[in-house]
Amino acid sequence: MKSRHVLMLSLLLPILAACGPKPSTDTSPTGDAAAPAAPAAEAAPATDAAPAPADASTPAGTPVAVAAADDAAAAAPNTNPIVPPQGPAPVAGTDYEEIANAQPYAPLNGQVEVTEVFGYVCPACGAFAPRMAAWKAKQPADVRISYVPVAFGKAWEPYAKAYYAAEAKGLVDKTHDAVFAAIHVQRTLPGEGKPPAEPAHIAKFYASYGANPQEFVALMNSFGTNAKMGRGMQLAQKWGVTSTPTIVVNGKYRVTGGRSWDDVLRITDHLVAMERAKR
């Protein structure tokens, strides 16, 4: 199921101009995370997308039915080897910025933390998602990928809350790519330029992955979710994030360069190796 959503997202028009805070009428790339467009050959209209996930009452073959397989895959030990980074070493001030008074998102526990600051309604984040998913699948056990959703506009807020509600229910691995697909490919969830999604609408989507809709709405509106959103926004500000997607390594380095999304991840590989060498 997860691979199906990655495939669908790879059909997205690769909009590589980063998304930034609103309101703003400037449609040019914003912030250090902007990257040039990928080759036009990758583009495909959203109408080619596969159907949206069915609701919770749908029989075998739906997200609920394959949840056990996803759980089994997640439980498998990570035996990915450590692969040396490829390409030239990144240049400070050009490819990345060092963050003063470094602060990771979560305790490192001996791992190197790679955090993506993102927004589900951000088209650039939707275009980046397949590359990030493929990169994440290849990481060794000493690398931990974290996500920090930010709210750069009213349309972003309910999805940021939904991310934390899904995190509380252990559903992020099953739903992260699917939310991007629902917004940017299937158009079954509203995106940027539309009225903000209603919590009940979002909860119905997560119900197809096993969530209780009423409980999910309550989690979206909970004190704990609001506290996590506040902390995420504070960290993003501390890290100097002005656009999405932005990659931060161990809370120390913000990736600012890259000719493409794959090049952004090449720089990330080097920064991970730098941190690994310090242990």
Q: What does this protein structure show overall?
A:
With 279 residues, this protein is of the alpha+beta class. Helices cover 38% and strands 9% of the residues. It contains 9 helices and 5 strands, in the order ααββαβαααααββα. It has a 5-stranded mixed β-sheet. Strand 2, helix 3 and strand 3 form a beta-alpha-beta unit. Helix 4 packs across helix 8. The longest helix is centred in the last third of the chain and has 17 residues. The protein is globular and about 50 Å long. The protein starts with a helix and ends with a helix.
Shape: globular
Widest β-sheet, arrangement of strands: 1-5-4-2-3
List how many beta strands DSSP finds. 5
The computed structural class is alpha+beta
Radius of gyration: 18 Å
The rounded distance between the terminal residues' Cα atoms is 36 Å
Tell me the major beta sheet: 5 strands, mixed
Number of contiguous helices: 9
Name the helicity range. 25-40%
Spans with pLDDT under 50 lasting ≥5 residues? 1-15, 23-73
Q: How much of the polypeptide forms β-strand, as a percent range?
A: 5-15%
Query: Secondary-structure element order, as H and E?
Result: HHEEHEHHHHHEEH
Mean pLDDT: 81
